[in-house]
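Example record used in the benchmark description.
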Amino acid sequence: MIEIRDLTFRAGDFQVRSVSLDVANGEYFVLLGPNGSGKTLLISCLCGLLRAESGRILIDGQDVTHAEPRLRRIGYVPQDYGLFPHLNVAKNVTFALRAAGHSRAAALVKAGPLIEKLRLGHLLDHMPATLSGGERQKVALARALAIQPRLLLLDEPVSALDGPTRAEVIEQLRIVQRDVGVTTIHVCHSTDEALAVADRAGVMIDGRLVQTGRLEELMEHPASPDVARLLNARLLPRA
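Model output (structure tokens):
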């Protein structure tokens, strides 16, 4: 269970204010919002790259609000994938495992099921610069999952991909997430993308989490004109 309680923090002049959210174990939660709404900042704070001013972040009951990033057991895939350009695919995937003390052979064995699941076996000796966008995304996902995280954070994971590749990777994201069972928060601004993967969704506008629920419910009953515009929904009076 991920519990966020009244979380407030700043990044320059922008403030994310009083965010509260529960994400159940194994749930796939999508965070929607326009550019500049604070989505990426929120997941940056969850993984410890930004410091909270107030509020709490709990993972499985453990308060990690002020814990170092490496102690939170969070897998993070940034928008640009963040692969190490000087390391091949095998070394990228096993980087965190090696840093935790596993030998090269043991790390590859531990990451083996993910490498097989994401069909990366034939690419292990390749360098990131030689990979397609979809392949880089899969390598980044395998690296994030190799540490068996308690929470997986995906920041616009398919925004840089072309249409057919995007559809393939979105489908694979959901399949892998279900197989692994990891609690996931996925940032995007596409309703179609969210519909393909989300158990539930939330909408951020101007640094606030303004509505959460099943995406179909949000589209049928948006909480405000801003939410309706974002979801291409029609604002209807509540019964």
